[in-house]
Amino acid sequence: MATLADSFLADLDELSDNEADVIEEEDVDAGNMEEDVDGEMADIENLNYDDLDSVSKLQKTQRYVDIMQKVEDALQKGSDISNLGMVLEDDPEYQLIVDCNALSVDIENEIIIIHNFIRDKYRLKFPELESLVHHPIDYARVVKKIGNEMDLTLVDLEGLLPSAIIMVVSVTASTTSGKPLPEEILDKTIDACDRALTLDAAKKKVLDFVESRMGYIAPNLSTIVGSAVAAKLMGTAGGLAALAKMPACNVQLLGAKKKNLAGFSTATSQFRVGYIEQTEIFQSTPPSLRMRACRLLASKSTLAARVDSTRGDPSGNNGRALREEIRKKIEKWQEPPPAKQPKPLPVPDSEPKKKRGGRRLRKMKERYAITDMRKLANRMQFGVPEESSLGDGLGEGYGMLGQAGSGKLRVSVGQSKLAAKVAKKFKEKQYGSSGASSGLTSSLAFTPVQGIELSNPQAHAHQLGSGTQSTYFSETGTFSKIKRT
Questions:
Q1: Per the record, where are the segments of Pro residues compositional bias (predicted)?
Q2: Which residue among 47, 93, 471, 472 is least packed, with the fewest CB closer than 10 Å?
Q3: Between the CA of residue 133 and those of 45, 167, 377, what are the distances in Å?
């Protein structure tokens, strides 16, 4: 039976064997990793950024040489009208146009690569120049013109840059911290500038060929957006047939690039507009209407491309009609709104308005009705001066009151039915309806004939309310009175 020490020794032996296997596996992995790293480093070393030929290879490709040769031959030969009856996709010039569109994109990318190479090399001489001149071709021309010259007053930049930019460049060059380049680096920089200018000339030649043939390939589309924009749209879409099958919302985005606004607002940035923004119609439209004009141009361009893909109108009349329609619509958008016409007042009603009748309205009219006395006070007789409270026209005038002859007021104010009813209600409210009489009432009545007599005040009030004269006359019709002795 093995002891505890023997089991420990056996475990140690197994651990040592496993460690040896792990070390061998790590050695194998490390060897493979070194091989991969060596391969990657070899590729990176082969791509030498100091050598222009290692980063710019387009001009040495066979595709570039063949297309440029065909373009030069086609420009010298001119347009071949004998192929008008041929199917568009089978036409060799149409295939050459498609290839030229793809080549123009490659040339633009190649110019950007060469521009970065020139900036890296010339930064030692004039580091501020790249922030003053942004266009790659203008930058290459200026670098080639300046060279290693430190005094820019001796360099004539007229014609290469605007006069304002030339002044800024000259002032900045006088205070720059750059130093002259070595001869070897300067030669590489000048060579890169020549190569960029050559590519730019080739690109112009390709675009001239495409524009000259767009009138034959897509006459209606070229009429609306122009030959250059039509060529770019067709090249980006992959041909005229592909452009005709594309919806208008996608045609609007062809060539659009998302702009890096560095955190600023996107309210005024037109990042959903592609090559259509380069058209004459878009540029002449006010900024507030450009998005609407862009959508309109995209829709009409799609219709024109569909007509051109079927060779429906080789003369381009359809495109001219669509362009005129676009122009009229944009002019209509810019018209001011119609002036607001003055609204006449309604005809007044000559008939009296219908009012609500009934007991309530009658009571209201009776409450606010003018009395006869007030009517006379408000009226004046012609040629007769009115009497006043203070005389000589001073104070309150009496109008026609008292002009009958005696100079006194002849009109007595009679109590209205409504006032009598209100007085009765007030009396009942004041003394109550339990039969109690006022403390000022008396059983003595004063008559103008018999003097003082005794009477019942409550019976007298009751008889007044019933309209009878039973106070003075008995049931037998004789006059009864009590005479005081």
A1: 335-349
A2: 47
A3: 32, 12, 99
Indicate whether 470 pLDDT > 90. no
**Residue 385 belongs to a domain:** no
Among 337, 360, 389, give the residue marking a domain's end.
337
Q: What is the mean pLDDT of residues 252-262?
A: 69
Please state, for a pLDDT cut of 90, what percent of the chain lies above it: 9
Same domain, 139 and 237: no
Query: Side chain identity at 283, as an amino acid letter?
Result: Q
What are the phi and psi torsion angles at 116 (to 5°)?
-65, -35
Q: Is beta strand 444-447 parallel, antiparallel or unpaired with respect to 451-454? A: antiparallel
Confidence category of residue 108, pLDDT binned at 50, 70, 90: confident
Q: Which amino acid is at 139?
A: Y
**Tokens coding 296:** 């309109």
Given 198, 217, 236, which residue is the final one in a domain? 217
Range of the domain at 277: 218-337
Round to whole Å and give the CA distance between 239 and 484.
140
Q: Does some domain include residue 437?
A: no
Q: What is the pTM of this model?
A: 0.51
- Residues 241 and 290 both lie in one domain: yes
Non-local CB neighbours of 3 within 8 Å, separated by 6+ positions: none
Q: Does the pLDDT of residue 302 top 90, yes or no?
A: yes
Beta-ladder partners of 394: 391
Question: What would the pLDDT profile of 348-364 be if each residue is shown by its tens digit?
Answer: 777 777 777 788 888 88
